[in-house]
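Retry 2 of 3 after timeout on previous attempt. Resubmitting C-alpha cells to design endpoint.
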C-alpha cells in the first residue's frame, strides 16, 4: 500500500496562535512547532505501516520560508527510517496522479476568513 502524508504547521497539536511582534516565529516557538509536527508525522508513519503501508511519502508542505534559517518544519532525522521525504508545495492532484492508496493531511487548516479554523489562511 502506498501512503502520502502531508504535514503543515499551523494545525498541529497545541499550535493555536499567531507569532507575536513582527510576525516572525521566535526560536522557542519554531522549535515547539517543529517538535509537534515531527511527532505527529512519526506517529502517522507508524500507523500507516501497522495498516500495511510499504511505500510512504512524507511531504513537508509546512515549509516555513522567512521564519527560520532552516526553513523546513519537520526534523527529518527524527522520523522513522525507510520513508521518502518531499519539500515544498506540490498540489495534491499531482500526488493523487502517482497512485497513492491513502492520504493523511496533518496540521492542515481552514482557508482565510473561515471562523471555524485555527490560524486560518490560504495562498493562491
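Retry 2 succeeded. Sequence:
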Amino acid at each position: 500500500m502506498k501512503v502520502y502524508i502531508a504535514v503543515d504547521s499551523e494545525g498541529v497539536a497545541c499550535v493555536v496562535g499567531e507569532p507575536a511582534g513582527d510576525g516572525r516565529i521566535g526560536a522557542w516557538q519554531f522549535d515547539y512547532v517543529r517538535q509537534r509536527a515531527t511527532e505527529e508525522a512519526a506517529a502517522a508513519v507508524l500507523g500507516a505501516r501497522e495498516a500495511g503501508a510499504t511505500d510512504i511519502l512524507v511531504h513537508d508542505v509546512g515549509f516555513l520560508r522567512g521564519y527560520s534559517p532552516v526553513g523546513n518544519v519537520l526534523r527529518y532525522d527524527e522520523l522513522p527510517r525507510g520513508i521518502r521525504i518531499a519539500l515544498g508545495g506540490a498540489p495534491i492532484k499531482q500526488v493523487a496522479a502517482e497512485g497513492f492508496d491513502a492520504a493523511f493531511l496533518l496540521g492542515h487548516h481552514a482557508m482565510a476568513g473561515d471562523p471555524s479554523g485555527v490560524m486560518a489562511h490560504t495562498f493562491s
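Attempt log closed. The longest helix spans residues 27-50.
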